[in-house]
Design a protein that fits this description.
Blueprint (H helix, E strand, L loop, with lengths): L10 E5 L5 E4 L7 H20 L6 E5 L3 E8 L2 E8 L6
Antiparallel strand pairs: 1-2, 1-5, 3-4, 4-5
């Protein structure tokens, strides 16, 4: 029983308001299911903020190995993914 390792992506993708990816620079090898999870979470976060009348235009998730930056675009979003260096600083 092994674990499939996935290389952390560098790139971006743009979503329309329905969640459809309209442009992407992510490698094709990055799992579509993970891209879909990111899409759904980002769009639902921006939607919940709109419903709560919170002016949220940018969302940053800064993990040890990955930085995700999402910007709201008229109901859609552009999402940037960048791996972190695992070496010493």
């Amino acid at each position: 029983m092994g674990t499939n390792l996935v290389r952390l992506p560098t790139g971006s993708f743009t979503l329309d308001p329905t969640g459809r990816i309209v442009a992407s620079t992510l490698p094709r090898s990055f799992p579509g299911a993970q891209v879909r999870q990111i899409c759904d979470l980002v769009l639902s976060t921006f939607q919940l903020a709109r419903e709560a009348h919170i002016p949220l235009t940018e969302l940053i998730a800064d993990y040890a190995a990955l930085k995700l930056t999402a910007r709201e675009l008229r109901g859609g979003a552009i999402i940037f993914l960048a791996p972190r260096s695992m070496g010493p600083k």
